[in-house]
Write a structure and sequence with these properties.
This protein has about 650 residues and is mostly beta strands. It is built from ten helices and 49 strands.
Amino acid sequence: MRSTRLTAVALVSAVVAGGLALASPAQADPDARAFRKLVGVGSDTTQDVLNALAGDTVNAKSYAATAVTAGGAGLASYDAVEPGTGSTTSKITTRSGGPSFLRPNGSGNGRIALSMSLTGSKFPNSDGVGIFGQVDFARSSGGPSASGNALTYIPMARDAVGVAARGSALQNLTVDQLHDIYNGRLKTLNGLTVKPYIPQNGSGTRKFFLASIGLNDNDVAWVPTVQENQADDALTAEGALVPFSVASWIAQNNGVAPDHSSTAVAAGAFLANIQFTGDASTTSPVTKVDGKLAPVGDYYDNATFGRDVYNVVPSRAIDPSSAFFDKALYDIFVTNGSHVAALASDKAEDVIDDFGFMNEPYNGSINPAKHAKFGGLEDGGVSKNLPGTPVLKATPGSGSLKLSWTAPASTGLAVTDYRVVITGPNGSVVANKDLVAGTTSYTASGLTTGSYSATVIANNLNGAGKAASWTGSVKYASKTAATVATTAYGRTPKFAVTVTGSNSVTPSGTVTVKEGSTIRGTGTLDSHGKVTVPVSSHLSVGTHTLTVSYGGNSKLYSSAATVKLTVTKATASVTTSAPTSVSHTKQAKVTVKVTATGTTPGGKVQIVEGTKVLATGTLSGGKVTITLPKLKKGKHTLHAHYQGSSTVNAKNGANFTIKST
C-alpha cells in the first residue's frame, strides 16, 4: 500500500473556470447479462471509483486492466441513480433470476439494502420486494446509523466534505456561518442572499455535513434537496451553496468521473475555502498539481470536514471462523496482519488516487483503532433482540466430547448459526467452530485427558446471545472383565478382575463388587491392572448377579461388568461314636458329629437300621447325642443320616454295629 498526501503549500484558487473535461455517455451499471459475485450499492460519492475498481468503463475510460478480483470473483457496483437519465426511481437486478428492486440511492439506502439482503425484508419498504441475498456490500461515505456488530465498516480512503458555491461573497466561509445559513438564521452574507441546498435523504454527505455543523434533519426541513454531488442541479444562481464530496469534485473537474458539474463551474461555481473553528485563516479543499485538481492534506485531515469512506460488509462474512465466511469478499476488502486487501494494492490505490481520494495506510482495516467501525442492521422492520441461550448437554467420551443442544426460544430474528468453543487443559482452545442453524450437535475427538470447558452461543443477524456453558473432565475409556468359579457355601468366592485402559493407559485404583447396593468386596489393582477380590463366604445358596465396578482414575473413566456367581450347598462329613454292645434292657447312646468346610451344619440327624429310622436328633454346634430305643438281642448294623440344611447337602455316615445282649 502507499499513501499520497498533499498540503496547503501548493494551494491555488479552487475556482475552476474552464478546462473541465466534458464526459462522454454516462457510466453504465455492470453488464446485466454477466452477473458478478460481489454486489455493491449505495453512496454516489464512491460509486465511480468502485465502478472503476470493478473494471468497468468510467467516463469513456476502460479500467478492465486494473479490475480488482479475488479467486475469480469480481465486483458489481451499481450506481446510486440511473446512469444517463439520472432517474431515482429505476430498478436493478443483481442476480440471475433475482428480483428487480429500486436502486438504493445514497449511503444510508445502500446500508439499508445490505441489511435487508441479510434479513430478507422488502426493499425499500413493505411496498417493495424481498431482496434476500441480492447485495454483498454497501458503499458508504459515513459511519453507522445503528448500534451493533452486524456490519463492519471497512475504511477504503480519505475524503472530505466541501461546500460548492456560486458568488464571490461565498469564497470564504466559517463553520459558524454554515451553521447559521442552514438553520435559517443567516439570510445574506457580504450583501449576497444565500440559497442553501442539501443532498437527498439517505445521503452520507448530507448526514456527515449536518453533524459537522451541529444540525440535524429537522433543522434543514425547509432546505431544498438535490441529488448528491451534482452541482449543476444546485448551483443555478448566485448565492447558491451545497455540501459536496471534495473527491467527487476533483474527479468530475479532472474529467475522471462522469460530469454533473461543468455547467455550474462554467458559470463560476467553486469549492469554498473554510475557516475551521480555532483556525486563524481559511483552508482550501483543493490545489492544483500539473494542471489537475488534487486534494489538500490539511483539509482532508481536519476533524470537522475530513472523513473516511467505507465499504460496509456483513461482519460474519469476513470472519474466517464463521460458517458464512466469504473468502472472495475478505480478500478484496480486508487488510489484516500480513493479508492485504486487493483494494489496498498499489494498482488499486492508483485508481483511488485518480478519483480524488487520499490513500491511507488503514485501507482495509477491521480494527477500530485503525478507523474501522461496527454497526447494527439498518432494517427498522426487524427485531433488535439477540438470541436466547441454548439448552446444552455435554457427553464426554473416550478422548472425545459430544455437545448437543436445543435451540433457544424465539426472541425475534431467527438463529442463523451456533458458535462452539471448547477449551482444554492449560487454557488451550481445541475447537472454535461456527455451525449453521439446524445443526444441534458437535463432537470433538482426539482429545487428551484433563479438564475441559465448552460454550455454545446462538447467533442471529444482530449478534451473539448468552453462552450455555459446561465444565468437566475428558478421560479415556476403560474396560472391566471379571470371572468367578462356582463356589460351595462356606468357601470364599474369589473374583478375578482385569481392567484395561485405552490409549495405552495402565489402570490404577480400586475395584468394588456389589450385589445390588450392598458392597460384597473391594480390591486395589496391581501394576498390571489386575486384582482378585474375595467376597463373603456366606452368600445364600443359589445364583447371584453381582456388579464388578472400576472407579476410574485421573485418566480413565469408570467401567463395570456383570458377573453371575453360583453358590452350591456345602458337602458334609458325618462321623459317629457309639458303643459296640449294649444290654437289650438298656438304651444305647450314639453321638453324631457333622462338619462342612467354612460352616457349622445344623439340622436333624437320623439313626437308621436298614430303612427304618430308629431315632432322630437335632444338631447343636454340629453335634448331637441320640438315645436309641432298646434293641432286640442280636447284632444291629446302623448308620447316621444327616438330612441336610439350606446350606449343606444331606449325607450318610459310615455303618457301625451294636451288639444287643
